[in-house]
Amino acid sequence: MTRHEPAPGLSRRGFLKASAAVGGGLLISFALPLGVRAVQAEAAAFAPNAYVRIDRQGHVYLTIQPVEMGQGTYTSMPALIAEELEVGLDQVTVEHAPADDKRYANPVLGFQVTGGSTSVPGNWKPLREAGAAARILLVAAAASQWKVDPASCRAEQGKVLHPGSGRQLAYGELVDAAAGLPLPEQIPLKDPKDFKLIGTPAPRTDSPDKINGQAVFGIDAHPDGMKVAAIQLCPVVGGTLAEVDPAPAMAVAGVRQVLHSDNAVAVVADHMGAARKGMALLQPKWNEGANAGMSSAQMLEAMRKAAEQPGVQVRVEGDAASALAKASKRIDAVYQVPWLAHACLEPVNCTVHVRKDACELWLGSQVPARAKAVAAQITGLPEEAVTVHNHLLGGGFGRRLDVDFVSDAVKLAKQVDYPLKVIWSREEDTRHSTLRPYHYNHLSAALDEEGRPVAWTHKITGGSILARWLPAAFVNGVDRDAVRDACGPYAFPNLAVHYVRHEPPAGILPAFWRGVGHTQNAFMVEGLMDELAHLAGRDPFDFRYPLLEAHPRALKVLETLKDKSGWADPLPAGRGRGLALTYCFSTYSAQVAEVSVDDAGNVTVERITTVVDCGIAINPDSVVAQVQGGTLFGLTAALFGNITFKDGRVEQGNFDSYRMLRLNETPTLDTFRIDSPEAPGGLGEVATVTVAPAVVNAVFAATGKRLRSLPIDPQALRKA
Fold first, then answer.
1. If you placed Cys at 266, which of 14, 229, 417, 519 could pair as Cys (CB 3.0 to 4.6 Å)?
2. Sign of the Cα pseudo-torsion (37, 38, 43, 46, in order)
3. Cβ atoms of 50 and 30 closer than 8 Å
4. Residue 373 CA: distances (Å) to CA of 223, 359, 502
5. Is 465 exposed, middle or buried (0-12, 13-18, 19+ CB in 10 A)?
6. Could you tell me if 349 and 220 are in contact, meaning their C-beta atoms sit under 8 angstroms apart?
7. Using an 8 Å Cβ cutoff, are 416 and 384 in contact?
8. Sheet with 154-156, edge to edge strand ranges
């Protein structure tokens, strides 16, 4: 668990700052310690990254760094402040942080980004400290006015009370006086047993506006004078536009202009219907470039050859090669996972207004400061002349960690003098998405004569996300995300992990995808663990227990899951149960999937039982929602997810060819949470990691057929 303490020598007063807010009131800001900013080119030790503001009416405003993309940030972040400030959740108004890497850096990652399941773990202590600091100052201000000991006062529901005299003052009456007081050196936080909000189910604060249609997503932005553009990019990855005749599109009523950039053409119209109709009539000619004949089969063959290399050493313990050679039982396997798109419900979009001396963006982004930077680069304006209006995101999943679509939109908007909203169709979004990498991995494991694991090797071959997206984090030839979960949480006496970086053809961008490296490697590790348990003739639960002695929380999760899933209950022929465990984002999670397989090889997932230990739960209802959402997201990919290439083109487009799980295909989902005193771990990506191996292991239990690649292929399971 990452701890967020002030840097050595940084006092509590240096970490937290109190001052008067503009217009009157109390402002609490807090700074990041220098150490977490190591990945930034320009580190600032005391740049404030969040604010709690209380005005003279007693309204509490919280400016937060994490964006809201469905994960519940607008509920969890204010709960942290409200708990220590002694106000209700409904008394806190959340405001988006502006695009600013220095002032609103992610406390874990060191720059402005929402991802990696870091929002709650990163803000768990800093936001509570900010709320506690404000409360202490308000109590001190009241005590000073009453000339009593602050210890004789208490805060409650936005007021300071003095029980001995019955006096009380609302926060709004105290903020100006509080702003002039120095912060104490110590900011004590509540004992968890005294929590009133944290750990108590609460309705999502963003739900009402999303239900009644008042919520504003990026695609809803509509600045005055705006026109809408449909965009088409070169269908061959990495290709460019050769020429286009605008006349057919211009004949459509409502079409205003046809624009183009180096690799795209766009039809601008008064509304999307006209823009799409005009686009359908265009017949652009493309320079298809070097990838014109490229196919999935060719890429896989190149990856197979690359995987023959020894790779860069990531982790070595003992002598795995010798142990494998001497073992009485051994498994050698190749596991593969495919390219995956994100398929966010809200297709990528960006509205841009470029003027002579300024540029404005309206969008939903997980990296608003990067969006700002790329707009400045393309327009030639200084970054301070670019304004980003970041909105709610209709799904992120890592897709909106990239700014390729921002770049395309700005290039087009430079050619007009009005705000231009560029919307990618579902097909364009799927065919030009950044993608979770294809991984082709070699694994070997061995058992001794008693059936105990004695060796484990894992060689990971695939493209590097970090080398492209955050080069400073790509160190010594190793992508640390790509190798996460390479042996799970298990202890092996002999272990070797290696990494072979093999990049796809230029233009295909390996990218983060909900769970990222964990989703790839957990599928492989938990699959091979199931194979080993079967080879040893052991129950999959019992086989894992001795390997997890260093993880008592994992053992408790497994023991609870074995009971809750009905693991020992008999099943009819054609049905099976499978187990998978993961430790990722400082959270322990395990699932049992129950599936049925018919004679044609069709897999029906009947039930998924999840047990999770994510530490202290801010909102238990959100834990269940995150687990359910992540499970269905990962299950969709396990059953259907696959991006393939032919003649340089992505073959999938809309949801007819890039399938989503349907309502009638959704299994029963049972979720159980372990009460834990540990600091919160991440949760948004955890269930996505465990579901694929749980389902594949259940398929083996039902059919006796072992699957080592995704998505699940019914043909491989069909009865002869």
1. 229
2. positive
3. yes
4. 21, 11, 29
5. buried
6. no
7. no
8. 154-156, 159-162, 167-170
Average pLDDT of the residues in 292-302: 97
Q: Minimal CA–CA distance to 604: which of 529, 702, 468, 533? A: 702
**pLDDT surpassing 50 at residue 280:** yes
Q: Which domains does the chain have, with CATH numbers?
A: 12-200 (3.30.365.10), 218-288+348-423 (3.30.365.10), 298-339+435-717 (3.30.365.10)
DSSP state of 548: G
For residues 394-422, give the mean pLDDT. 98
Cα-Cα-Cα-Cα dihedral of 269, 275, 277, 278, to 10°?
70
Rounded-to-integer distance, Cα 601 and Cα 609, Å: 23
Query: DSSP letters along 30-44, please?
Result: EE--GGGGTTSSS--
684 within 8 A of 514, measured Cβ to Cβ = yes
Closest to 231 (Cα-Cα) out of 410, 393, 386: 410
CB neighbours of 308 closer than 8 A, spacing ≥ 6?
none
- Give ∠ CA 210-424-115 in degrees, rounded to 5: 60
Helix (H, G, I), strand (E, B) or coil at 53: strand
Q: Where are the alpha helices (DSSP H) in 185-344?
A: 207-212, 247-250, 272-281, 296-306, 320-326
Which pair of structure tokens corresponds to residue 664? 């009638």
What is the per-residue pLDDT across 204-243, written as a single tens digit (0 to 9) for each? Answer: 999 999 999 999 999 999 999 999 999 999 999 999 999 9
- Gap between the Cα atoms of 430 and 448, Å rounded: 47
- Residue 430 is encoded by which pair of tokens? 């799927």
Reading across the β-sheet that carries 227-233, which strands appear in turn? 255-260, 264-269, 227-233, 420-423, 349-354, 359-363, 386-390
Model pLDDT for residues 82-97, shown as the tens digit of each residue: 999 999 999 999 998 9
Q: Is the pLDDT of residue 327 over 70?
A: yes
Which residues lie closer than 8 Å to 156 by C-beta, 6 or more apart?
A: 86
